[in-house]
Amino acid sequence: xxxxxxxxxxxxxxxxxxxxxxxxxxxxxxxxxxxxxxxxxxxxxxxxxxxxxxxxxxxxxxxxxxxxxxxxxxxxxxxxxxxxxxxxxxxxxxxxxxxxxxxxxxxxxxxxxxxxxxxxxxxxxxxxxxxxxxxxxxxxxxxxxxxxxxxxxxxxxxxxxxxxxxxxxxxxxxxxxxxxxxxxxxxxxxxxxxxxxxxxxxxxxxxxxxxxxxxxxxxxxxxxxxxxxxxxxxxxxxxxxxxxxxxxxxxxxxxxxxxxxxxxxxxxxxxxxxxxxxxxxxxxxxxxxxxxxxxxxxxxxxxxxxxxxxxxxxxxxxxxxxxxxxxxxxxxxxxxxxxxxxxxxxxxxxxxxxxxxxxxxxxxxxxxxxxxxxxxxxxxxxxxxxxxxxxxxxxxxxxxxxxxxxxxxxxxxxxxxxxxxxxxxxxxxxxxxx
Amino acid sequence: xxxxxxxxxxxxxxxxxxxxxxxxxxxxxxxxxxxxxxxxxxxxxxxxxxxxxxxxxxxxxxxxxxxxxxxxxxxxxxxxxxxxxxxxxxxxxxxxxxxxxxxxxxxxxxxxxxxxxxxxxxxxxxxxxxxxxxxxxxxxxxxxxxxxxxxxxxxxxxxx
Amino acid sequence: xxxxxxxxxxxxxxxxxxxxxxxxxxxxxxxxxxxxxxxxxxxxxxxxxxxxxxxxxxxxxxxxxxxxxxxxxxxxxxxxxxxxxxxxxxxxxxxxxxxxxxxxxxxxxxxxxxxxxxxxxxxxxxxxxxxxxxxxxxxxxxxxxxxxxxxxxxxxxxxxxxxxxxxxxxxxxxxxxxxxxxxxxxxxxxxxxxxxxxxxxxxxxxxxxxxxxxxxxxxxxxxxxxxxxxxxxxxxxxxxxxxxxxxxxxxxxxxxxxxxxxxxxxxxxxxxxxxxxxxxxxxxxxxxxxxxxxxxxxxxxxxxxxxxxxxxxxxxxxxxxxxxxxxxxxxxxxxxxxxxxxxxxxxxxxxxxxxxxxxxxxxxxxxxxxxxxxxxxxxxxxxxxxxxxxxxxxxxxxxxxxxxxxxxxxxxxxxxxxxxxxxxxxxxxxxxxxxxxxxxxxxxxxxxxxxxxxxxxxxxxxxxxxxxxxxxxxxxxxxxxxxxxxxxxxxxxxxxxxxxxxxxxxxxxxxxxxxxxxxxxxxxxxxxxxxxxxxxxxxxxxxxxxxxxxxxxxxxxxxxxxxxxxxxxxxxxxxxxxxxxxxxxxxxxxxxxxxxxxxxxxxxxxxxxxxxxxxxxxxxxxxxxxxxxxxxxxxxxxxxxxxxxxxxxxxxxxxxxxxxxxxxxxxxxxxxxxxxxxxxxxxxxxxxxxxxxxxxxxxxxx
Lengths: 434, 160, 702
Ligand SMILES: Cc1cc2nc3c(=O)[nH]c(=O)nc-3n(C[C@H](O)[C@H](O)[C@H](O)COP(=O)(O)O)c2cc1C
Ligand code: SF4
Ligand code: FES
Fold this sequence. Notes:
The structure holds three protein chains of three kinds.
Chain A: H1 28-33, H2 38-57, H3 70-76, E1 86-91, H4 101-107, H5 109-123, E2 127-132, H6 137-152, E3 157-160, E4 165-173, H7 183-190, E5 214-218, H8 219-231, H9 233-239, E6 247-254, E7 260-265, E8 268-269, H10 270-277, E9 287-291, E10 300-301, E11 308-309, H11 311-316, E12 325-330, H12 335-349, H13 355-372, H14 378-391, H15 398-413, H16 415-427
Parallel strand pairs in A: 1-2, 1-5, 2-4, 6-12
Antiparallel strand pairs in A: 3-4, 6-7, 8-11, 9-10, 9-12
Helix pairs in contact in A: 2-3, 2-5, 2-8, 2-9, 4-5, 5-8, 8-9, 12-13, 12-15, 13-14, 13-15, 14-15
Chain B: H1 5-17, H2 27-38, H3 43-53, H4 57-64, E1 78-83, H5 86-90, H6 93-104, E2 110-111, E3 117-122, E4 134-136, E5 139-141, H7 146-159
Parallel strand pairs in B: 1-3
Antiparallel strand pairs in B: 1-4, 2-3, 4-5
Helix pairs in contact in B: 2-3, 3-4, 6-7
Chain C: E1 4-9, E2 12-17, H1 22-28, E3 52-55, E4 62-63, E5 74-76, H2 80-95, H3 111-119, E6 136-137, E7 142-144, H4 154-163, E8 168-171, E9 178-181, H5 194-198, E10 204-206, E11 219-224, E12 233-239, E13 242-247, H6 261-265, E14 280-283, E15 286-289, H7 292-308, E16 313-317, H8 323-337, E17 342-344, H9 350-357, H10 367-372, E18 375-379, H11 383-386, H12 388-401, E19 404-409, E20 421-424, H13 430-436, H14 438-442, E21 447-451, H15 458-469, E22 474-478, H16 485-490, E23 497-498, E24 502-503, H17 515-520, E25 526-530, E26 546-551, H18 556-559, E27 563-566, E28 575-578, E29 583-587, H19 599-610, H20 619-629, H21 637-641, E30 646-647, H22 675-679, H23 682-686
Parallel strand pairs in C: 1-5, 16-17, 16-25, 18-19, 18-21, 19-20, 21-22, 25-26, 26-27
Antiparallel strand pairs in C: 1-2, 3-4, 3-5, 6-7, 7-10, 8-9, 11-12, 12-13, 14-15, 14-27, 23-24, 28-29, 29-30
Bound molecules: flavin mononucleotide, iron/sulfur cluster and FE2/S2 (inorganic) cluster.
FE2/S2 (inorganic) cluster is lined by residues 83, 85-88, 124-128, 131, 133 of chain B.
């Protein structure tokens, strides 16, 4: 038994993670012995239309953060196009709170490769790239070995698994830029440029990498595909709730006893995830807030957390399922500091292309630093909320929104903490409030 | 400029990885791997890479400052990167950073006088569930406590 | 005809071309959508977010600069939400922008100031420290003040897309992102200053102009650049009798927004301390300042004396003087002195082209044609260096219309970057290379052929025959060097040609001497050199000849003069000039340099002093005469009077072509040289790239 980053929980529904913990789970032999490449053969049999239709039926939605229906995205790629088509795996995993793609690549890389191959059949593509964030160097080295093994055993290259299907896989390293996780910035980065997002349309499906039709998905999204093809879209959909198919790797971090990555069906109750799967809050302290899907999501108050973890329920609660990075914060958490740290991140990562995000994140970080130090007036708290709203929905890409949303929610929901800081500073006679 | 045979082989492979005429795509990984070998993105490296990819030096300058892992100044032999982002923050990442500063006697983006260590406060490194986390060069260390950090530093000091 | 769609903008039904950008559609209807990063003709950015509008059924505000209009679209550009959005965008922009407007060069013509005035917030809510970086000098002509930069990327695009130089980029990221020059801390480029012109704020400033004046203290005079033959309009900013800058303020003229380093910075010879400001007369072997009346009288007497005894007088005329001056000068020579010894430095074989076209009036391309033609062929010229506007046009045509360019040159040129085919041809072998393109060219729907001085005489005839044989409409541009090279030959500054390409025989005269013959004629009595420097590389055989020179600078030829008339430059006179494409445009007098007179005045006064009547010597009157008398010059007055360009249409019978190779030769000026004028422009000589090199664009020969 291999040592995992965290103990699995009996409450999990292990589909994508079912090989986690197996001895040599990353090896081809292990993969083949546990049903590997059966989905690929089946995919070749049923052909592109049927593949896409199964993925649609599965109600799989993108696991990278935006939650776009995967089957629909696949159907946008023009198959009879004069240019080659590319499959691109987004393994940039940099949304704070998220650390699941890592495990999928480390423990079950062939599952990802098989997902890419099936996507290759679906859109008639011969080449795939895995864009891995630069910090995951050990994974790039690891994947290089896996890909080499796959080639030498005939599971990549001219004649994949003896089927005559041809497919090449290449690895590409990032070098430290959250924005390169945004799909079009990723493409510019892949082309050797600054990771600046592109104008849409054209969408990558039509004109993506090197101006060719490109299918781009998250690691987890591709990893789900073999299961969908093998067991049917219906089956996968049935694991979750309507319109929210399957399971997700949920990364539970922060103030919990058993932080870790757990595979849970969509629609799983959030409180159960915190208190049962992740073992509850240390010291029996009280829950204060939860970031449900990575730091880009609006924060939920404890009282708002009694909900099912699916796209629709979270949208109703005014937040998002995002990338699956669930950050649990207990009553000791300093929310002003949390807001500052989150804004500092977006300021650091803003690509600088558009005015509201470039200037907004910088200004907001400065203001939040000041408020965190207790300097300012209640009007400054309002200004933080207002500037965030001025950014929201007006930036070039979603990073601006990602910076605005958590901030707006924290200012609204935890205003008292900002005021308390100002009060205590004022009480110390250091500044006048009012 | 000459690189190790291993790195040259890697470059050669990179050049084959992208569609014909799109060799520029190798720019960012090339710089990063070359930096790993020579310690930083030097002036000579900029010109070398520009020449190999048939692009202007400005094209190279444009990406260097964009990617936070590319450094124009030499890093320490061991580059200690401490995450203080939200999950790590909740698990004591800031205290860990402070401790690292004290133990190493250097601040953010500084290098020890002997060139052995450099320190950087970094953004989320994808280790949130095992926070607080840090990376030394490319090695991840999870659930790091100040004591564990001191042990790590001590063991690396021995290696030299 | 493109498909039309109907949409609603601010409640009004509007028809527009399907796919047109909303911002353009609005502009055409007088509705302003504010924008910084949007710039017509350059790549779309959607970065400044000033142009956000409300579109029905779209949840978020949409950038009008990238939104294609579609059937049934309902747009609002004037709602409280939009006003608030614009206000907040400006607030973000001003957060780090230094409010040094009182001392900023751009103050008074700054788009950020204007936008803040119209759409902005009255006061700043930003209390934190601003991010400061010191100003940087990137070249003698380009300075960069980073805190003022709003990152609209216009400069990056105009340099890369517009000029094809790609000398500017963006470094760093986020709030510290900055525009950066090609070589770390300095620029190596065309030094055209297009980046300065296009900058909406005071981030990029001109080394010549910075901190010199406020824009409203200048007079802005739109005239024609006096350097190369392309005929760009340039607006001179003049204060206190000094030119302070040149740019294209209103983007009018055939060059639109374009200007090269010469047009933008090469005007400073005007203010040179070395300008001749008093007539000079050689007395006891030395040139001494004398009064105008003394100088005029001396020359008039000398000419009358030589005329009476049937002596030999020769005129070497200029490539820079106006059509009126040229016309008047040849009248002075032919009518006044019965001499056909008149010539000028000819830089391209227009004469043979006109002859070979044998009367066709639709076969000469305009500058605008170069932007519209489906295909073009460049022969034996480094356009980016020698014909900057023509290069810009071809490039823009390729960018916007994917036009097809073919290149036949002796070395690498910048057009090769976008040409569909580029051939290398040693001098003399160009037409063989052209012949090898026959199949490709004959498949084109139309073609413009531009050729340099290497194609002359018979080669021009063969080229035109080749063009005729393609079976498609073909137009030609015979490339020339200087601002009025074309006007010089059109006005008959040639020993065998009267104005309008009429053979001298029509006036009952024998052809006179060429420049070379005049210089070699030991019995020449008087040589009058106007705005030219033939003695720079040649000797005057007639050692006792009386030499008269009209000049701005005491260069080699002037040093040999007996009388020097200080001449006014093109920026100091009225009149017209004709560019390389035969387009006639008018000069506007921007200033007066003390002591100097226009060449027209000088000719007129000498004629009057000689007692001969050549008619009035006011530019307007002479131009009227040209329009009446010179074939092809009956151009529209209103067009010219309002600053437009009217193409002349030379129509001819057989022209006695001057085919001797040594008579036609380009001076091979680069982007950074301009004959004698260039030598006296400190601005031009100060840049790193001076003097430049032809066929050195560093692109491998395919
Ligand atoms: C600022 C920003 C950062 C992002 N980072 C990532 C990332 O690290 N990994 C990822 O898969 N998707 C990321 N995304 C989402 C991608 O743009 C894209 O939606 C996704 O990769 C598509 O794959 P999916 O449909 O499988 O989710 C990011 C988006 C934004 C706006
Ligand atoms: S919102 Fe604008 S500045 Fe921010 S990352 Fe996206 S494009 Fe760049
Ligand atoms: S927050 Fe530190 S690794 Fe994610």
